[in-house]
Design goal:
Elements lengths: L1 E5 L4 H12 L5 E3 L9 H14 L4 E6 L3 H7 L7 E3 L3 H9 L5 E5 L5 H13 L6 H14 L2
Parallel strand pairs: 1-2, 1-3, 3-5, 4-5
The protein binds D-ribose (RB5).
Length: about 140
């Protein structure tokens, strides 16, 4: 199950991503917004809580730029959120960073690219090995600040 959420800027892109990836068998827990104006940190927290609790394996967050969502998501303990706008980043943030949330900008990307980036993100496994040590060091920073 994938948690997904957006603010008012990301509603159409979120619908497009859900439609495209549902065809490939992914299931989504849609935390809103369905269109009402809202504050992106509120939506980021809802999606991240589902990822941290283990109820959802990963999360996708969409706002105008993706920046506010990524800032908010990375404040949640246990979340490694990556703002992605290209396929290399979507792939390598899984391979090397074990990112568990991907953020995208609805005002900077087209819906076709967004769906493709989401698919790459959701189908790429963490490489582990030396990258686990680096991810652990990120967690150390989180735990010691
Ligand atoms: C909303 O207008 C906009 O500020 C928001 O979607 C996002 O881009 C913030 O980072």
């Amino acid at each position: 199950m994938i948690a997904i959420g957006c603010d008012h800027a990301g509603v159409e892109m979120k619908k497009a991503v859900i439609a495209a990836l549902s065809e490939n068998g992914f299931e989504f827990k849609d935390m809103g917004t369905d269109g009402e104006p809202c504050d992106y940190p509120v939506m980021a927290k809802k999606v991240c809580d589902l990822v941290v609790s283990g109820e959802c394996e990963k999360g996708i967050l969409i706002c105008g730029t993706g920046i506010g969502m990524s800032m908010a998501a990375n404040k949640v303990k246990g979340i490694r959120a990556a703002l992605c706008a290209d396929s290399f980043s979507a792939k390598y943030t899984r391979l090397h960073n074990d990112a568990n949330v991907m953020c995208m900008g609805a005002r900077t990307l087209g819906v076709g690219l967004a769906s493709e980036l989401a698919e790459i993100f959701l189908t790429t496994d963490f490489e582990g090995g030396r990258h686990q040590r680096r991810v652990d060091l990120i967690t150390d920073i989180e735990n010691n600040n």
